[in-house]
């Protein structure tokens, strides 16, 4: 077995140790009830662009197959690459590697204190010391449900994009879009995809009957503290039933809504044609009427129900709060006027309902895109880059690219236009200043030979993943490129997930080149593990910060303990001839307490518990330290293979002594024992020995529904 596998005796020890490990984690924190909360979006595919087209991939594949025919002639032996004796080298054409790389995307962490010289610990924060109660506030916010800030919209079997966009756009106008990510929950995902533990709110916006199986799933979500908001839906439970009143169907009626401050508000809305009736039960405290029609029968149209002991709650409405006037077939001018005049109130009611379900509704405006600044930590490299640029742009200073074209200008002009496809880059460093980023702090903490030397910094950009596209393939290798933004408006995550990117989050895309015929070049999926490890090490290698509970979660997440997500990594790689061009996107929360938790919250918590006075850390310091650690990790991996970095990776990962279900939630249990030479998770199932397992491709939780591949 490769050295990563645990010996039989170690497995037995692990089985014995596991319960006590679990016990410790439960008692060592007051947050043991908080389920993992993803700061960055966690769901449904929106078609992330992988760095190369299928055609290119096939071309590379055939090249790689030719390479593999000459494997014996290659200068790399198994021994040199750290592979097990009976393992063939995996090439990027290998289906498993491609699958892991494209669907999982990588994160990596690690650096050994023995092998890595001390980094500068001059990470002084310009920020004021945070109040001690800041963490408590942050936790309280999360504990409204203890769930990631994902909002799901279920539209039944309709796949119509238009309906989803209608409901989504209304929500985006009500809730703080920096704090939540909105996805569609498709019919086929309700039973198969692990959304229940990864969502805060489920919106049911369909009049279709709800199947018994789906109803059970929705009730399970409530039982785990989830919130449901239903519009004109047949979904009910406990003390409420639905009664049809066909004469009301799709008509405009006046509602009287009871507000949280006990006042009443009247407004006109389109109603569904159904009303609620209370079923007489002994315990009516779980049902509260929020709105009635202003008619003779005083029909109930909005109710609030609680469920279970974990804070589960549902607000059911038979009035169309979710639809604006353009989405409805309004027949008369009178109806049009009534609805238009009630529109402001409709938003007010909707916001109050969303707030009562635990969402933040203070609106943040979407910021304008800003120009890019060309910065460098090294004067000599800066001049060399400008010299290279002279021969690489047209007469207008334009460097064209299919993703983002860059226009290099010497100084900032007041009327400079910035669009998602064309961005000005200011080359004069003297005019640069930012409240979110200090070049001096970055320079002090960057101690690399190549990586991160040429920096494109911008306050606001759609995503840093596209900024380097037009430069990276031709730039000399010693000019390591990095793109950093204070905010992203369309950040990218694994499997097309949306990446929430507020101020206070470290947001960066780094360019790294890796030779195909090298230890890491044969195991490109490992890059993600090295990056995740580098993020954790960037904090935990600072003297005094070694016990900050920042950890690695396979395959590409950064966690607070094993409870809440703080960050993630995205890796896209393109093979050109015999060199991988790897774009590494990473984002982690440094100073943004909401909507989940950040590194400075952990430092505040640690200071409170230990009586220490560790300083808050800054984005500029930690990005530079991450890049520094990563370069050293890559060097170690190239020299020693996986075994050079795995001991440190395991020191910081969250999976020790943990079990997972294989195939499905009811599948057999297996102990997680490590990762193999290619970055796949290894598990030990009773009576079956150690096997590598693959994700099933769901984009909610990589550790759910793991598949044992057929060999």
TrEMBL record:
Residues 51-87 are annotated as: Disordered. Keywords: Ligase. Residues 440-638 form the BPL/LPL catalytic domain. InterPro entries: aa-tRNA-synth_II/BPL/LPL, Biotin-prot_ligase_N, Biotin_CoA_COase_ligase, BPL_C, BPL_LPL_catalytic. Gene3D superfamilies: Bira Bifunctional Protein, Domain 2 (3.30.930.10). One of its GO terms (molecular function) is biotin--[biotin carboxyl-carrier protein] ligase activity. SUPFAM superfamilies: Class II aaRS and biotin synthetases. Residues 55-69, 76-86 have a biased composition (Basic and acidic residues). One of its GO terms (cellular component) is cytoplasm. Belongs to the biotin--protein ligase family. PANTHER family: BIOTIN PROTEIN LIGASE, BIOTIN--PROTEIN LIGASE. This is Biotin--protein ligase. The lineage of its organism: Eukaryota, Metazoa, Chordata, Craniata, Vertebrata.
């Amino acid at each position: 077995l490769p050295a990563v596998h645990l010996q039989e005796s170690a497995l037995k020890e692990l089985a014995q140790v596991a319960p006590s490990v679990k016990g410790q984690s439960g008692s060592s924190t007051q947050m043991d009830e908080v389920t993992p909360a993803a700061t960055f979006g966690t769901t449904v595919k929106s078609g992330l662009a992988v760095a190369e087209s299928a055609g290119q991939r096939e071309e590379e594949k055939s090249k790689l197959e030719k390479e593999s025919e000459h494997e014996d002639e290659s200068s790399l032996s198994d021994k040199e690459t750290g592979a097990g004796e009976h393992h063939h080298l995996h090439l990027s054409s290998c289906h498993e590697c491609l699958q892991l790389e494209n669907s999982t995307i990588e994160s990596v962490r690690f650096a050994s204190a023995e092998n890595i010289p001390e980094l500068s610990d001059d990470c002084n924060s310009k920020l004021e010391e945070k109040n001690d109660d800041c963490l408590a506030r942050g936790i309280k916010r999360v504990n409204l449900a203890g769930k990631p800030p994902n909002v799901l919209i279920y539209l039944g079997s309709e796949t119509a994009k238009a309906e989803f966009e209608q409901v989504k756009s209304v929500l985006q106008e009500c809730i703080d879009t920096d704090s939540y990510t909105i996805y569609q929950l498709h019919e086929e995902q309700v039973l198969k995809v692990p959304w229940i533990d990864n969502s805060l709110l489920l919106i049911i916006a369909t009049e279709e009957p709800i199947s018994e199986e789906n109803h059970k799933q929705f009730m399970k979500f409530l039982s785990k503290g989830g919130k449901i908001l239903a519009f004109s839906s047949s979904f009910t439970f406990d003390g409420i039933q639905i009664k049809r009143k066909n004469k009301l169907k799709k008509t405009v009626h006046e509602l009287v809504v009871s507000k949280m401050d006990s006042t009443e508000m009247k407004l006109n809305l389109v109603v569904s044609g159904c009303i609620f009736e209370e079923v007489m039960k002994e315990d009516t405290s779980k049902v509260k009427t929020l709105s009635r029609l202003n008619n003779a029968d005083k029909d109930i149209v909005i109710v609030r129900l609680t469920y279970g002991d974990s804070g589960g709650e549902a607000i059911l409405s038979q009035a169309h709060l979710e639809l604006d006037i353009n989405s409805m077939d309004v027949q008369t001018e009178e109806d049009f006027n009534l609805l238009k005049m009630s529109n402001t109130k409709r938003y007010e009611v909707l916001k109050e309902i969303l707030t009562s379900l635990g969402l933040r509704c203070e609106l943040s405006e979407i910021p304008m895109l800003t120009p890019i600044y060309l910065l460098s930590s090294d004067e000599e490299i800066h001049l060399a880059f400008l010299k290279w640029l002279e021969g690489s742009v047209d007469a207008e200073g334009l460097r064209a690219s299919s993703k983002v074209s860059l226009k290099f200008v010497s100084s900032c002009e007041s009327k400079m236009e910035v669009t998602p496809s064309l961005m000005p880059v200011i080359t004069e460093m003297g005019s640069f200043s930012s409240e979110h980023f200090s070049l001096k702090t970055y320079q002090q903490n960057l101690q690399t030979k190549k990586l991160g030397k040429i920096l494109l910094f911008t306050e606001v950009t759609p995503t840093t993943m596209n900024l380097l596209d037009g430069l990276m393939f031709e730039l000399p290798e010693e000019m390591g490129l990095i793109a950093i933004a204070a905010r992203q408006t369309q950040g990218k995550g694994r499997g097309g997930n949306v990446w929430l990117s507020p101020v206070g989050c470290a947001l960066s895309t780094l360019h790294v080149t890796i030779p195909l015929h090298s230890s890491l070049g044969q195991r490109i999926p490992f890059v993600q593990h090295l990056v995740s490890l580098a993020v954790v090490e960037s904090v935990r290698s600072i003297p005094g910060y070694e016990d900050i509970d920042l950890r690695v979660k396979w395959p590409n997440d950064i966690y607070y303990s094993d409870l809440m997500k703080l960050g993630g990594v995205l890796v896209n790689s393109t093979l050109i001839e015999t060199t991988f061009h790897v774009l590494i996107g990473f984002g982690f929360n440094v100073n943004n307490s909401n909507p989940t938790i950040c590194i400075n919250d952990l430092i505040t918590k640690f200071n409170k518990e230990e009586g220490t006075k560790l300083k808050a850390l800054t984005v500029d310091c930690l990005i530079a330290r991450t890049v520094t650690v990563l370069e050293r990790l890559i060097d170690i991996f190239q020299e020693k293979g996986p075994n050079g970095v795995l001991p440190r990776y395991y020191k910081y990962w969250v999976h020790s002594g943990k079990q997972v279900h294989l195939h499905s939630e009811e599948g057999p249990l297996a102990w997680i024992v490590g990762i193999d030479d290619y970055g796949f998770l290894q598990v030990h199932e009773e009576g079956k020995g150690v096997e590598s397992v693959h994700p099933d491709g769901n984009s909610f939780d990589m550790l759910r529904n793991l598949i044992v591949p057929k060999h």
